[in-house]
Amino acid sequence: MTTPLQELWFLWLVKYSEMCDCAEIDAKKLAAPFFSNAPEQGRSPVIMYVGKATARGWYKDQFAECMGLSREDRVAERHKRTKEWVDALSSGEQHKSGFWIFATKLNNIAAMTPETCSSLSHIVWSNVAKIGRIDGNPRGIYFEKQKELAVRTLKAEIETYQPALVHFASWDDCDTAVIDALVDDGGERSWDKTGNSKGIWRRPSYASLPPLVWTEHPQGKDRDKWSLWLNKVREMLTSGANA
């Protein structure tokens, strides 16, 4: 029997085909779908780290080679590519951008390991948009076509992975639309916005959602902002553990 999240991965395969067939979309500009992976068994606490979308094609050639396989095998191939990417980052084979250097620091807070540790074992990586664009972030019709499924999938990922905290690391209108729908609080009323000038909002655990942190994308930001954001994450994890 498939899980609700597995059913959503199948729907993303359909969504990709629909977007390729859409007259308003240039299929050559679409990246292949991105699927997150569950945390390793026994890893706790886990931080779910959510970016906007993948960069470039996201193993598009490999995805195309699997078109004739069963949907289960195609989903498995997508999970395999995510694992390969994260494993290469952890081992040092893949260069870490600012986004991933920050992820490593989040991991070290969750795992309570030294700052020199390069592991990402306590991070579950996801993205707001599961279908990116080769030439930049998905906007306009490229985003609208997947927004509703993106909200449903984020909810299912949180329910399935049970993270101790979710960190959204992208701050623009497209992400706002999805995160607002996820939180569904009638106009961002449940967020602590006292850190707005420093690029951070926070929301305590409420109803079905764990604590949430929402920051600007870490790439290119000064380290004073990083330190503030990381300290707030540490505080929220600690307070959650002691609740």
Quick description:
With 243 residues, this protein is α/β, with parallel strands linked by helices. Helices cover 44% and strands 9% of the residues.
Task: Please provide a written account of the structure.
It is a single chain. The protein is built from eight helices and five strands, in the order αβαααβααβαββα. β4 (200-203) and β5 (212-215) form a beta hairpin. It has 243 residues and is an alpha/beta fold. It has helices at 4-21, 60-65, 71-91, 98-111, 141-144, 147-161, 173-183, 223-241; strands at 47-51, 123-127, 165-168, 200-203, 212-215. It has a single domain, classed as Uracil-DNA Glycosylase, subunit E, CATH 3.40.470. It has a five-stranded mixed beta sheet, with helices on both faces. The mean pLDDT is 93.
**What is the beta-strand fraction?**
5-15%
Silhouette: globular
Radius of gyration from CA coordinates: 17 Å
Number of strands: 5
- Structural class of the helices, strands and pairings? alpha/beta
Mean pLDDT: 93
Topology-level CATH name = Uracil-DNA Glycosylase, subunit E
Please report the distance between the alpha carbons of the first and last residues.
35 Å
Strand order of the largest sheet: 2-1-3-5-4
Features:
globular, Uracil-DNA Glycosylase, subunit E, 44% helix, alpha/beta
